Amino acid sequence: MxxxxxxVTVVREFLAASMAPDPEQAATFMAPDVxxxxxxxxxxxxxxxxxxxxxxxxxxxxxQLGTFDWMERDDxxxxxSTGTLYGEWPDGRSFSGNRYLDRFEVRDGKITRMDVxxxxxxxxxxxxxxxx
Length: 132
Known about the structure:
This protein is an alpha+beta fold. It has helices at about 5-20, 25, 45-55, 120-125; strands spanning about 30-40, 40-45, 60-70, 75-90, 95-105, 110-120.
């Protein structure tokens, strides 16, 4: 079974590499058969796809990491990371305070599942929600 501190460390290091962005380094924290699902049910095959998606949606984006919560399951750990996104939209407008929730499953030191939710879609549809 995954030890709790190690699972959180794996997720924290993955997020740091993702924000660099360094998709090659981020991929080292993921299992080869990782299942990644972003908001809207968008499935992504790997860390490179995450970087490409973010590059199309934002001029740049980073996470202000908040809390990490975890629990042990039968054969893996579940880690939740919450916080906010900040950055710049493609049109040059800056944003901050965009809530996110990421859920990870970590097994044998590798991320095997990642689910991502955030406020970006709502903010894109109704820019007035973004109060920077």
